[in-house]
Amino acid sequence: MPPEGKRLGTGAETEFIADLVAAEIRHMVTAARTDGGMLSASECAARILATYPNCGLREREIADQVMMAAAHAGIAVEIGRAG
Predict the structure, then answer these.
(1) Residue 15, by phi and psi: left (phi above 0), alpha (psi -120 to 50) or beta?
(2) Most buried residue, 37, 54, 62, 78, by most Cβ within 10 Å?
């Protein structure tokens, strides 16, 4: 298994995985909006990393993307400790 944060494959494969991660973040934000709830950035990041462990992003980077997407959508976001 490669070190965390190391991207694998070709540029097209990397872009595909990045698109999947972005789609998962959008799904989580949409679900929170529908439920009228809030998101935990660190929990979302951990779930995404469990699904895409070799995505090439660190947990903190994913948590930052979750926070930005939630803020953009007007969703409350809990800021926790991500690795």
Answers:
(1) alpha
(2) 62
CB within 8 A of 38, min separation 6: which ones?
Answer: 32, 70, 75, 76, 77, 78
Name residue, tokens 């979302």.
44
pLDDT of residue 9: 59
Domain ranges of the chain: 11-78
DSSP H stretches of helix in 1-83: 11-35, 41-51, 59-73
Q: Output the average pLDDT for the chain.
A: 86
Longest dimension (CA), the chain: 39
Total residues belonging to the chain: 83
Amino acid 31: pLDDT: 94
